[in-house]
Amino acid sequence: MSQDMSDDKLPQAHGAGEGHGEVAAADNPFADPGLPPHEPRRTDIDERAAKRAERQVSLLFIVSMLATVGFIASYVAIDPAKIVYIFPLGHISALNFALGMTLGVALFCIGAGAVHWARTLMSDVELPAERHPIEADDEVRADVIQQFKTGAGESGFGRRKMIRNTLIGSMALVPLSGVVLLRDLGPLPGTSLDTTAWKEATPTTPIRLINVNTNLPMKAEDIAVGSLTFAKPGPSALRPDGLQESDEDFQQVIAKSALMLIRIQPSDIKDAKSAALGFEGVLAYSKICTHVGCPISLYEQQTHHALCPCHQSTFDLSDGARVIFGPAGHPLPQLKITTDASGYLIATQDFDLPVGPSFWERNA
């Protein structure tokens, strides 16, 4: 019985083999099923449904415009230091959250509106297209142009004015978000780039120099010849307690007002103007490099050279802090100092030059 069953299977296997050979030899073994019959959408046959879809698309574009306006309003109105609790994110910056949400909604609504428009109102008829060489001939180019015109007409872009106008409005407003963010590149021109906290110092209302390490006022004898000391502004009319690290704007103020003091033998000072701005060989220069604003903290005692650690700009502090090496474009600004009746070092005016890197309104 086992032999009979094997014999029964053999003819079937042989027949299957012949059938497989016939299929393999065929030029087109699978029939082209073609495109399924087109089924109209509700919006294709019901004008009320089409109008409703048009209003939905326009609403999405309008929401995008409102979100962009909300982005700009949030940037202007919300304090960058404000922290809020948002579940489940926890404590986060209120400004960052508002900017992220409004910009996200603006971009999402443009995309969602375009997709909804395409799925409900634009033509959904499928057209087969044969593959062709990459380079198109004149006939194909003319056909593409014609198809573009046909597609533009079928999209209803010219006929459905509500969608067209709201789309243009939302697309025009979204780039304003990026324009507004340019404000964070730095202070506005002509506002605070050319002044520091030392601007309050005058001969009648001087500002004392405060040692940043001891937080105490300094005397000339406290600075040894060949030493380097860092200082900050002391009490003034606007800051009765002086500049403190607990101040909300401490980083912004110290970034421009940081001071380095050196003491050189008066006979070694080469620049007469620099010597006149100092006191008994004590010279006060801006600590901010004039290349890209790095803090200078390296001093060569024998050569009187100050070196910026970022890009190796080198300044000769005995010769008006002129640049002798590196990419910096101009010398370090110098602060005019003297002493008060108690012998403490004081400033009587702001730096002689704008502090930090060059900018578009700087003359020196």
Automatic annotation (TrEMBL):
<keyword id="KW-0560">Oxidoreductase</keyword>
<protein>
    <recommendedName>
        <fullName>Cytochrome bc1 complex Rieske iron-sulfur subunit</fullName>
    </recommendedName>
</protein>
<keyword id="KW-0472">Membrane</keyword>
<keyword id="KW-0812">Transmembrane</keyword>
<dbReference type="InterPro" id="IPR045603">
    <property type="entry name" value="QcrA_N"/>
</dbReference>
<comment type="similarity">
    <text>Belongs to the Rieske iron-sulfur protein family.</text>
</comment>
<keyword id="KW-1003">Cell membrane</keyword>
<keyword id="KW-0249">Electron transport</keyword>
<dbReference type="GO" id="GO:0016705">
    <property type="term" value="F:oxidoreductase activity, acting on paired donors, with incorporation or reduction of molecular oxygen"/>
</dbReference>
<feature type="compositionally biased region" description="Basic and acidic residues">
    <location>
        <begin position="1"/>
        <end position="21"/>
    </location>
</feature>
<dbReference type="GO" id="GO:0051537">
    <property type="term" value="F:2 iron, 2 sulfur cluster binding"/>
</dbReference>
<dbReference type="InterPro" id="IPR036922">
    <property type="entry name" value="Rieske_2Fe-2S_sf"/>
</dbReference>
<keyword id="KW-0411">Iron-sulfur</keyword>
<feature type="transmembrane region" description="Helical">
    <location>
        <begin position="57"/>
        <end position="78"/>
    </location>
</feature>
<keyword id="KW-0813">Transport</keyword>
<feature type="transmembrane region" description="Helical">
    <location>
        <begin position="98"/>
        <end position="118"/>
    </location>
</feature>
<feature type="transmembrane region" description="Helical">
    <location>
        <begin position="165"/>
        <end position="182"/>
    </location>
</feature>
<dbReference type="GO" id="GO:0046872">
    <property type="term" value="F:metal ion binding"/>
</dbReference>
<keyword id="KW-0679">Respiratory chain</keyword>
<keyword id="KW-1133">Transmembrane helix</keyword>
<dbReference type="InterPro" id="IPR017941">
    <property type="entry name" value="Rieske_2Fe-2S"/>
</dbReference>
<keyword id="KW-0479">Metal-binding</keyword>
<keyword id="KW-1015">Disulfide bond</keyword>
<dbReference type="InterPro" id="IPR014349">
    <property type="entry name" value="Rieske_Fe-S_prot"/>
</dbReference>
<keyword id="KW-0408">Iron</keyword>
<feature type="region of interest" description="Disordered">
    <location>
        <begin position="1"/>
        <end position="42"/>
    </location>
</feature>
<dbReference type="Pfam" id="PF19297">
    <property type="entry name" value="QcrA_N"/>
</dbReference>
<comment type="function">
    <text>Iron-sulfur subunit of the cytochrome bc1 complex, an essential component of the respiratory electron transport chain required for ATP synthesis. The bc1 complex catalyzes the oxidation of menaquinol and the reduction of cytochrome c in the respiratory chain. The bc1 complex operates through a Q-cycle mechanism that couples electron transfer to generation of the proton gradient that drives ATP synthesis.</text>
</comment>
<dbReference type="Pfam" id="PF00355">
    <property type="entry name" value="Rieske"/>
</dbReference>
<keyword id="KW-0001">2Fe-2S</keyword>
<feature type="domain" description="Rieske">
    <location>
        <begin position="251"/>
        <end position="346"/>
    </location>
</feature>
<dbReference type="GO" id="GO:0004497">
    <property type="term" value="F:monooxygenase activity"/>
</dbReference>
<dbReference type="GO" id="GO:0005886">
    <property type="term" value="C:plasma membrane"/>
</dbReference>
